[in-house]
Each structure stands twice: as C-alpha cells, then as structure tokens.
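Tutorial handout. Part one gives the primary structure; part two gives the three-dimensional structure as tokens.
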Amino acid sequence: MRIPKTIILFFILCFSINLVAQDRHFTLFNFAPLVINPAYTGAYEGSFRVGGIYRGQSFANNIPTAGTGIVYRTPNVFIDAPLLNVRKKDWVGVGGNIYSDQAGAFDLGYTTIHGSAAYHLALDSKRDNVLTLGVNIGQVVRSTGGNCSEAVYPDADFDPPSSNNNCPYQVMQNDRNLEGPGTSFFDLGAGMLLRSKLNKATNIEVGFSLQHITGNFEFDSVLDSMQNQRSNYNLQIGGANTPYRIPKNFVLHGKYNVDLTEQFSLSPTFLFQQFRVQNEAVLQVWGGYKLLKRETRDDGKKGKIIKDKDAPKVRFGLGYRVGDALQVLFGYEKGDLRVGIGYDLTLSTLADANNNQGGLEIAANYIFRIYKQPEVDPAILCPKF
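Part two.
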C-alpha cells in the first residue's frame, strides 16, 4: 500500500513548527468546530446539526476543589444550520455556541455565548472547493464561585478565611473598585476555512481563526474613556485594580482525509494556537475501519464487499500535544451520528502535579436531515383507440 505524497507533505508542515505546549484546548477538538473556527458554521450537508463535548480532569489530594473533586470542568454545546442558498452554489450558515470552563477551589472560570454566521463560497460548479469566511459575536462572562467555605483544602497548613464567605481573590469590574463575583465583556472573532475535494477518496481542510479581536472592552457608557471601558479579566488580589487586556487567540488547523481501501481510512490532523506568549501544538492521526458486509456465496467462501456509505465506522488513533501529553482516541460513526472518547496521558513534569491523572473527554454530534416531500400533480392518461 503506497502512502500518498500529500500525507508526507502534511506531516512536514506539522513538524516544522517548534512549540511549547499548553493544556488549553479540547483533545477532541474536531467535535467542537465552532470553538475552533466560526467558519465551520453550516459547513456540511443537512438541515441542522447539534453537538456537545465535555472534558473533566481530576487531581488527587494536592489541589483544592470546589467540592466536586474535579479540578477542570469544560463543557461545550452548539447548534448550527445551513439556511440560505445564494448564487445557486453558495450558501450561508448560522449557529450558536456555548463554551464554559471552570477550575480550582473557587470555581474560577469563564463562559462564552456566541452567535456565528458564515458565508460559503463555492469555487467550482460541483462544490468540490469551498472557501468560507465566518464571524462570531457574543459575550464572555468571567466569574468565581465566591464561597471559600465550600472549597476542600487537603493541605492542613492552609487555613481558609472563616469570617465571611468572600474568597481572597476578587474579580474586579472596570476601574470602579466594584468587587463582585464576576465581570463580562463583548467578544468578537473571525475565521477563514478552505475545504477541497482532491478526488473521490481524498479531501483536505485548512483554516485559521482569530478570537478576542476587540479585547475585553465594555461599551456600557460612551462617556467613559477606553481605559475605563476595559473590564478586568484577571483576578485582582486584595483590592488591586490593574486594567488587563485579554490577548487575542490565534488558531491554525488542518485535516487530511483519505480512503486507503473500501474499509480503511486515514485522517491526520493538526491544531496550533497562540495565546500571548503561550503556544499549543497538537498532532493527531485517526484511523477508520468501516464495518461493511459481504455477499453470501453458496460455496461458503467470502463474497465481495457490499458498498454502503452509511455503514458503521469504528475510529481509533493517537495524538500528541507537543511537550505535554499523549492522546488516546476512539470514535464511532453511524450515518449522521458521530461519537468520540479521548484521554490525555501526561508525559511532561506536570504528571507530578496531577498525580498522573489525565483528562477524559466524551463528545457527540448529529446531523438532522429534514426534507420536504415533493408534491406531484396527478396525471390522467387517456387511452388512444
């Protein structure tokens, strides 16, 4: 079996980036398309799509938790649909995405609520090559649990405050010294995606996105200066009030899908993102095995494989977050249903901090197809004599 040259070039591109990894993203990032890039909004065939993913990571006996035992909890749900056809071959997709992340003893985290839209420009009559531009607009809420008495402190040397329920860390709003459980700000992102079908067995996707384009500016008062309009995204200690601008998040991603045989497929993918001085690079290779049936023969020998595009497919693979973790990947596909399970096995020095407990993810999405039945006018045939 010969490996296509495009796969070799794909990996050369991936390994040419020398990076320091960070644990800031989903392992099953392909199951969170609107988190990666708003250009994925409506980038499929069907009526509408619903999906979700959950990541949980537990550290034992060394990090305080908010009573759950799980240090990091990251759910994401989304819905999108290709709604409007334009110029016969183009179309517009719209969607919504909710992403949340909570961590630590005080439930420090943020929640993002985005609405997204994307314009899909077909570059040929068969839609084999499609260029997409997408945007997302929404709100980011930064918050803490705010109740130190509910936190669990395994370290006996650490004595949490008992006089009140206010945590020592406060989220501040603007420059107004308003201590409270959270702050929020307007958020804007954009992205571009190119999808190309090279032949009947091969297709490729490459895209990039930029999040937090406007930073964490608030637009609640036109009389305030730009400095005061900026919400303090970081936690302030002991009443400190230092304005902080959330950095832009740049994401570059790609996927190469090839059917090696009627039953076996291969899908190498990569993800790179940069958040200020922190970088993350992930390389993954997914294999697939389609559970096709064979024809029944009278002589008892194996018959020919029966082709079925909706036959179940078992997915499996490995990934590597550069400088940090090995990823074990499993998935299953049946028609328009996709499910996945991923586990991170920490290989870096962080394994000592998390007691060798990696992150577990489960994910699923489903494409609904609702088509109107055509109305056919009855025809009356008159016999001729």
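Part three, for discussion. The chain has four helices and 17 strands. The mean pLDDT is 77.
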